[in-house]
Amino acid sequence: MSSPDTRPLVLRGGTVLTMDDAHTVLPAGDVLVVDGKVAAVGTGLDVPEGTEEVDAAGGVVMPGMIDTHRHMWQTAMRGYGADWTLTQYFVWYYLEHGKTFRPEDVHAGNLLSAWEGLEAGVTTTVDWSHGLQSVDHAEAAADALLAVPGRFVLAYGNIQAGPWEWTADPAVQAFLKRRADEGRLGLQLAFDVTGDPSFPEKAAFEVARELGLPVTTHAGVWGATSDASIQLMHDAGFMTPKTVYVHAASLDTDSYHRIAATGGSVSVSTESEQSAGQGYPPTWQVRKHGIPVSLSMDTSVWWSADLFSAMRTTLGADRSREHLEAHVEGNTVTQVHLRAEHVVDWATRGGAKALGRDDLGSLEPGKTADVVLIKNDASPVSFPLLNPYGHVAFQAQRGDVHTVLVGGRVVKRDGKLVGYDGGAVRSAVESTVEHLRGAMGEETWQAGMNPALPEDGDVLDNPYTYTEYKSDETREARGSLFGS
Ligand SMILES: [Zn+2]
After folding, report:
1. Domain 9-63+370-417, CATH 2.40.50.140 — does that match?
2. Using one digit for the tens of pLDDT, what is the confidence trace for 420-429?
3. CA–CA separation, 102 and 216 (whole Å)
4. Residues 262-283: pLDDT tens digits?
5. CA of 39 to the centre of ligand 1 (A)
6. Any idea where the domains of the chain sit in the sequence?
7. Ligand 1 midpoint to CA 412 (Å)
8. What is the pTM for the complete model shown?
9. Percent of the chain topping pLDDT 70
10. How far does the centroid of ligand 1 lie from the alpha carbon of residue 157, in Å?
11. Cα→Cα distances 48→19, 37, 39, 53, 338, Å
């Protein structure tokens, strides 16, 4: 992404959250970017001749945020499922309408989603792309990501087939190898482990290992994946420091020990867990085990790609739980465990660590220059700036994102995306909506905002259409939901 001909740029006089190991904060600091890298961070920096100056005074300069789990293809359905539960999501996407998405529909969703993230200061996003029912869909997903000047990881998945089936497909493997050689996108494999004791997903883990790709998996999702899934992965040696466990909400202490011991990280989607029902947002448990955390937004079918919202709701959910547990014991919480500084760390460093990208997530000389300036002089919410972490987590919002750099390249300037052809993106998304609406019929389309369950109710035990496996265990997670 960095290009040697990018003009040097300095952000002058902002409150700099470096997010380095010591979490150094510079009250009136400069960040100099040269050739796509952070060249210097300090006060009153000398800069090369011709350097572009951005006045950051009154604002906060921080590393670009990192979203480790978003189903970007679903963005063309923005807000459609606002009132869904997880079960209704499974019915709509997994059972009934996910197959209706053509490659161009995946392309349209990804394009919109990619711009949406950049606009909010999210410079890296993992596209948890489980709508890739053919390699043509995968090409479309990748092409859309490469058409937008952000940093993306394509996490290849396909809910229409077993992971052991699609990972064995030579065409899928050829796609992954070619895209890996190109080196323009990060790559992961994205699939869930149902807990079936015959462990059919083993073959998919073996492909991931052969191709050198990390696995990201929805773990601890009430009614879908459970402790049995973690045990199978652990016993077979597939839990690694690069494994990302999404949600990890309905798990017991033993599973958290296994995650902690093998060095993996948890991607918390607090807004999703709160509305959809994977389990209570797990930071209150995860932090007790020292498991690294990153944040994610899951899907724009409910929420937008806004990590300010993730930081805010994660603080709220953790504190809410802590107060509630104390009150049950007749106690009061006098000092909360989770601080604003922690969630800012999770939104930046946490994501970088989860992806094994030491060059991202902090503003230090030599790091890749993914930088965000939050500054909105017209807003009465922009001052006084007394507690910068608290300001970012509870006061700022996406409309305050003034400047965004990805690899030193300006992708948002003065509050406006650079190179964004809104008309073209809108017309692509409108075609997708028209296609889906036409294919479903108006009545089904309207009813889909609150879809009924199929008569057999099987989706409650197993949302995955590619396996008959069912277990009571996914519905017996009560112990862990209320603390083991
Ligand atoms: Zn998800």
Report:
1. no
2. 999 999 999 9
3. 24
4. 999 999 999 999 999 999 999 9
5. 36
6. 9-63+370-417, 65-354
7. 27
8. 0.96
9. 96
10. 11
11. 25, 14, 11, 11, 41
